[in-house]
């Protein structure tokens, strides 16, 4: 169990932690209880990232709000340095009242974001069609709480209310089944990282089609970069159309 605290005196405007190990594929789960009450401007995260310029990254970011208004769950994925793949959702529960489970599954087929076991987003490997995928860079697990008031709440119109500080997010129940990449090189996947569906450690073989996230998309999605015609005037990124075709 870890709590992250944000107040106006910490200088850096952020606090966080990261895993010692780095991984190439895995399933990572975190229980989180978000900043209650006044949380506008705060951003609590659970994400994987590699280092360097053309980095890979998979994000859960929770954008706070004024008391009583809903959090936004912001997701993104960077492949070889390119992100701009945001999808945003409201949650079907109050994420500040209790711990809930947020899981990132990353294997050679796809990346699946799940909330309390319900898949909300999938980013499929379309490398054969020329879309870069996250398959060559090891990543570490991170959690952080930072001041994102320039963009987080209602697009930055609502700022952090420091009179409500300190802001606290709790993390617990971390679990992973993943392929560790030692600094010395080598490494490999644990024996339970089976690629045959039905096995206990079947995360390595798990695949979801676009229909697998239909419930969350229909009921709770509030933004999908694939539908942002203003932003992508020449048409959406290639993976959007590939997924529409199934
Ligand atoms: C905050 O509340 C407003 C009003 O309900 C809503 O439009 C917005 O999506 C909420 N979340 C964030 C992060 O702005």
TrEMBL record:
<dbReference type="InterPro" id="IPR008264">
    <property type="entry name" value="Beta_glucanase"/>
</dbReference>
<keyword id="KW-0134">Cell wall</keyword>
<comment type="function">
    <text>Catalyzes xyloglucan endohydrolysis (XEH) and/or endotransglycosylation (XET). Cleaves and religates xyloglucan polymers, an essential constituent of the primary cell wall, and thereby participates in cell wall construction of growing tissues.</text>
</comment>
<dbReference type="GO" id="GO:0009834">
    <property type="term" value="P:plant-type secondary cell wall biogenesis"/>
</dbReference>
<feature type="domain" description="GH16">
    <location>
        <begin position="1"/>
        <end position="171"/>
    </location>
</feature>
<feature type="glycosylation site" description="N-linked (GlcNAc...) asparagine">
    <location>
        <position position="65"/>
    </location>
</feature>
<feature type="active site" description="Proton donor">
    <location>
        <position position="61"/>
    </location>
</feature>
<keyword id="KW-0961">Cell wall biogenesis/degradation</keyword>
<keyword id="KW-1015">Disulfide bond</keyword>
<dbReference type="GO" id="GO:0010411">
    <property type="term" value="P:xyloglucan metabolic process"/>
</dbReference>
<feature type="active site" description="Nucleophile">
    <location>
        <position position="57"/>
    </location>
</feature>
<dbReference type="GO" id="GO:0016762">
    <property type="term" value="F:xyloglucan:xyloglucosyl transferase activity"/>
</dbReference>
<dbReference type="InterPro" id="IPR008263">
    <property type="entry name" value="GH16_AS"/>
</dbReference>
<keyword id="KW-0808">Transferase</keyword>
<keyword id="KW-0325">Glycoprotein</keyword>
<dbReference type="InterPro" id="IPR013320">
    <property type="entry name" value="ConA-like_dom_sf"/>
</dbReference>
<keyword id="KW-0052">Apoplast</keyword>
<dbReference type="InterPro" id="IPR044791">
    <property type="entry name" value="Beta-glucanase/XTH"/>
</dbReference>
<comment type="similarity">
    <text>Belongs to the glycosyl hydrolase 16 family.</text>
</comment>
<dbReference type="GO" id="GO:0004553">
    <property type="term" value="F:hydrolase activity, hydrolyzing O-glycosyl compounds"/>
</dbReference>
<dbReference type="InterPro" id="IPR010713">
    <property type="entry name" value="XET_C"/>
</dbReference>
<dbReference type="GO" id="GO:0048046">
    <property type="term" value="C:apoplast"/>
</dbReference>
<dbReference type="Pfam" id="PF00722">
    <property type="entry name" value="Glyco_hydro_16"/>
</dbReference>
<keyword id="KW-0964">Secreted</keyword>
<dbReference type="Pfam" id="PF06955">
    <property type="entry name" value="XET_C"/>
</dbReference>
<dbReference type="InterPro" id="IPR016455">
    <property type="entry name" value="XTH"/>
</dbReference>
<dbReference type="GO" id="GO:0009505">
    <property type="term" value="C:plant-type cell wall"/>
</dbReference>
<dbReference type="InterPro" id="IPR000757">
    <property type="entry name" value="Beta-glucanase-like"/>
</dbReference>
<keyword id="KW-0326">Glycosidase</keyword>
<dbReference type="GO" id="GO:0071555">
    <property type="term" value="P:cell wall organization"/>
</dbReference>
<keyword id="KW-0378">Hydrolase</keyword>
<protein>
    <recommendedName>
        <fullName>Xyloglucan endotransglucosylase/hydrolase</fullName>
        <ecNumber>2.4.1.207</ecNumber>
    </recommendedName>
</protein>
